[in-house]
Inverse folding.
């Protein structure tokens, strides 16, 4: 059995992972996660730099992924294949939320004539699990599995507004907010106040904080027992609706569809 490098053993000990933790499997997942919209094709060296893993480990991981049909190599660089979607399908197929929420997103998009998506909180990001496009998909098009920062998105704030104060404070304490546009709120005290306001009013609205040119409104998505499990969001271009009337224009349809979902989410 291969032994861990001393450095990796120290990292495992520091992380708190037990003896059953599979280091090779974790490295393989890191290699998969290195690919993305801006890194569709990467050489072995590119992946090693992106993951901060030794080249021999990256080489074995890429070789294994290629053998399984999850990646392919043109002789110089690697890229993931469509088969990698089987990993996402496993989650979506086993997660009732995605199946139930997709039709609701489509209905909201039809009623508002804007793009609609549902997202869950994963650490400091939101991850989209359902979506329906409308209007100008060239910029507003979300995709299943797309990650965005939670702190400056309406969906993220809608979910965060439902967590206990101690959990929220701990989350904000470790948050490292980055400026995305001239409108991005990065002051943690201001963010906390904004999230508490969302809790009070029942919805979150952001104006050009994630990307210039559009704003969004989101509401928490609750399970049958009242626990918040996601958020559903409508995004629109600035010229389609002034910020002042944004919530008034789209909130009614959003709330009606989301409230109808609650009894279905067991």
């Amino acid at each position: 059995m291969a032994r861990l490098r001393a450095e990796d053993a120290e990292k495992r000990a520091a992380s708190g992972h037990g003896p059953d933790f599979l280091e090779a499997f974790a490295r393989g997942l890191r290699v998969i996660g290195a690919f993305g919209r801006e890194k569709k094709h990467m050489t072995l060296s590119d992946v090693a730099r992106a993951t901060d893993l030794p080249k021999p480990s990256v080489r074995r991981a890429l070789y294994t992924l290629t053998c399984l049909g999850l990646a392919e190599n043109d002789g110089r660089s690697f890229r993931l294949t469509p088969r990698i979607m089987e990993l996402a399908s496993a989650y979506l197929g086993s997660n009732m939320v995605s199946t139930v929420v997709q039709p609701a997103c489509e209905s909201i998009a039809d009623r508002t004539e804007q793009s609609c998506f549902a997202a869950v909180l994963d650490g400091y990001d939101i991850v989209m699990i359902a979506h329906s496009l409308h209007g100008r998909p060239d910029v507003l098009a979300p995709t299943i599995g797309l990650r965005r920062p939670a702190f400056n998105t309406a969906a993220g704030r809608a979910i965060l507004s439902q967590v206990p104060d101690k959990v929220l404070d701990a989350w904000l304490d470790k948050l490292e907010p980055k400026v995305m546009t001239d409108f991005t709120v990065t002051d943690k005290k201001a963010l906390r106040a904004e999230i508490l306001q969302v809790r009070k009013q029942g919805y979150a609205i952001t104006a050009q904080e994630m990307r210039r040119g559009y704003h969004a409104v989101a509401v928490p998505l609750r399970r049958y027992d009242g626990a918040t499990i996601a958020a559903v969001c409508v995004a629109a271009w600035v010229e389609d609706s002034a910020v002042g009337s944004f919530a008034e224009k789209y909130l009614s349809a959003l709330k009606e569809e989301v409230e109808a979902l609650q009894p279905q989410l067991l």
Q: What stands out?
A: The radius of gyration is 21 Å.
